[in-house]
Amino acid sequence: RVVPAGMEPGQGALAPAGEQQGMMEDGKVHSASGLFAYLEMLEAQAHEAAVKQEEIEQQEEKLAMLKKKVQELRLQRDELRAKVDLQGKGQLGKEGVMSEPAQPSSQAVLEWKIKSVKAMLQIFYLTGISGKLTKRGVCFCISTAYEGTYLDSYYLDLLIKPEVQIYRHSIPVFIPLEQIAKKYLQTDIRRFLSVLSDHLNAYVGRRFQADRLQEQFPEQIEGPLQRNSLCNLLVFKYYVSSKSKTFSLTARLLYGDLCHSLPTEAIVSCTPDAPASLAETAAAHSDLFRRMALHKAFRSFSTAPES
């Protein structure tokens, strides 16, 4: 064979057979490990999609059950109204004189109350509110969640004799429980529980967003996030980059509607020495905070290309 000039025999030629075999085996190992990693990723994605699909199907099933129960209760209501109308007509004598209506016994009234409470418990169970009868009345459990994540549960013990009143509870002191009870408890207990549940779910939703912001973006938040107990006022500073420079923005979020987890007012301001383009960025962030969950809005512009 011909050996290039200046090269000893055996130099610059193919590697020895044993070394070539080792290189091929290394390539196979790397290829197999990459394939396994890809298969694991596909399996994780398939599992996540299956879990989400199962959650959607469960929610649809609960909604269908709730609609069915509502229809049954409406039918019962219509039947009771018809019976009341017939009884009212039967109380008129032949001469058109109204006879004395029969007064229901205390036992009948109590049984009616218990039956009504049981029907109400069945309905609320599908909406995150469950309960059980007690010797004095009924104890409710209000379960809260945000974006499909179950969070805290709160308890409310009510007395129903001689009138409905709150016996004890675990509702946070900053939730306007007394105002809600004064408005709905004696006249519409379903409305009372529904409004109270809205307040609690909105509160845990706001708290959830603030916690996720601090957990997921600690390097972009300047100092501690300031918030009150109700989490309806959040103030924080965060860093943004513009033209290869880093600037600080201050966000002030006010949640005027305590039954919602999105702010009614979002003001983002920048320092006086910031470029004009940063003021446009601050305005865009303000709009984003009003329309999206806080941590999701932050993720959207944190992953955007640098301006």
Automatic annotation (TrEMBL):
> Which InterPro entries does the record associate with it?
CENP-O (IPR018464)
Q: What is its main location?
A: nucleus
Name one matching Pfam family: CENP-O
Segments forming a coiled coil: 39-83
Superkingdom of origin organism: Eukaryota
Q: Does the keyword Coiled coil apply?
A: yes
Q: Which UniProt keywords apply?
A: Centromere, Chromosome, Coiled coil, Nucleus
Subcellular location(s) per record:
Chromosome, Centromere; Nucleus
Among the entry's GO cellular component annotations, what is one? nucleus
Family from the record: Belongs to the CENP-O/MCM21 family.
Its name, as the record gives it, is: Centromere protein O
Q: Which organism is it from?
A: Cuculus canorus (Common cuckoo)
